[in-house]
Write a structure and sequence with these properties.
- The chain is mostly beta strands.
- Among the domains are: 97 residues, no CATH class; 79 residues.
- Helix content is 0%, strand content 38%.
- It contains no helices and 29 strands.
């Protein structure tokens, strides 16, 4: 969900900072997405990048230089980004303006940073104490767009916390698995099933404590019964199907796990994996070599 800062590393004997340093003056960077040409879209709560004015969204070259021609701007936090196969950029967060035009928490940019005027699903959060926000965006292989956060309508249709859009921004009527609280992480497995993490205790009408799995049509996968005692911030799937889970929890599947744990593909706990941190973990990703990156508010990991 959130990260305080970011940089890039190169490996030559030992890992070292590679000179990539687009400073956001200490303001959070909360989302990063890569374009096919290697350029980097960043989102967060910043007002400058490397001393150049940018309102919560910017694009960098591969060496970290701010793209002078890309300045769409959002009037509040950008929490998630996703790049489509056609180069268009999905933007989600807490904003109500994107490139100066009304967009309620969700919008889409063309590759040059101009606003996609035809895309405006306009989520709302009506009659609820939870503030509306978009925390997760995932583009499926068929081009459909998974949207997670908190909302009660999407594209004018009832959807609670989770929905799916067709590539043109219209709502996928076949997919409506409601939640009772925030969705913070969405991951599509190779078989098309969808992992969901967040704050919720209900998913698709079934009891799921902050983590669950859906079939491609949105039906809860009743064979998957993992649970966490507190917030799940992020999920990642390894090549062997095992699922890395990070967040604010101290128990996963009823067993002690300090903010980091791993599930087997069927949802059972991986008993051999227990690195643990001293504070919550906000983000994780699996590298091509199988190693697992984690980021968050901790100062110790695996006792080190």
């Amino acid at each position: 969900m959130l990260a305080a800062a970011f940089g890039a590393f190169s490996v030559s004997g030992q890992s070292a900072i590679d000179g990539f340093d687009p400073d956001t003056a200490g303001a959070p960077v909360q989302a990063i997405a890569l374009q096919p040409d290697g350029r980097i879209i960043i989102g967060g709560e910043f007002t400058t990048v490397s001393g150049i004015t940018r309102s919560n969204i910017a694009r960098l070259s591969v060496d970290g230089v701010v793209d002078a021609d890309f300045d769409p701007g959002a009037n509040n936090s950008v929490d998630c980004l996703a790049v489509q196969s056609d180069g268009k950029i999905l933007v989600g967060g807490n904003f109500t303006l994107l490139r100066g035009q009304p967009r309620n928490w969700l919008g889409r940019l063309n590759g040059d940073g101009s606003l996609d005027a035809g895309f405006n699903p306009g989520p709302t959060a009506e009659g609820t104490f939870l503030p509306g926000r978009i925390f997760s965006l995932v583009v499926q292989s068929d081009g459909k767009i998974l949207v997670g956060g908190w909302f009660t309508t999407l594209g004018g249709k009832p959807r609670r916390g989770l929905g799916r859009l067709n590539p043109d921004g219209s709502v996928d009527d076949s997919f409506a698995p409601a939640t009772d609280d925030y969705v913070t992480s969405l991951v599509v497995q190779p078989d098309g099933r969808i992992l969901v993490g967040g704050w919720f205790t209900l998913l698709g009408g079934e009891s799921h404590e902050r983590i669950g799995r859906l079939h491609t049509d949105g039906r809860p996968d009743t064979s998957f019964n993992a649970g966490a005692d507190d917030i799940v911030n992020c999920l990642a799937v390894q090549a062997d199907g095992r699922i890395v889970v990070v967040g604010q929890f101290t128990k996963l599947n009823g067993q002690s796990r300090s903010h980091v744990g791993r599930l087997k593909a069927d949802g059972g706990l991986d008993a051999a994996f227990d690195p643990g941190t001293d504070a919550q973990v906000l983000s994780t990703v699996v590298q091509a070599d199988g190693k697992i990156l984690v980021g968050g508010q901790f100062t110790t990991l695996g006792g080190q």
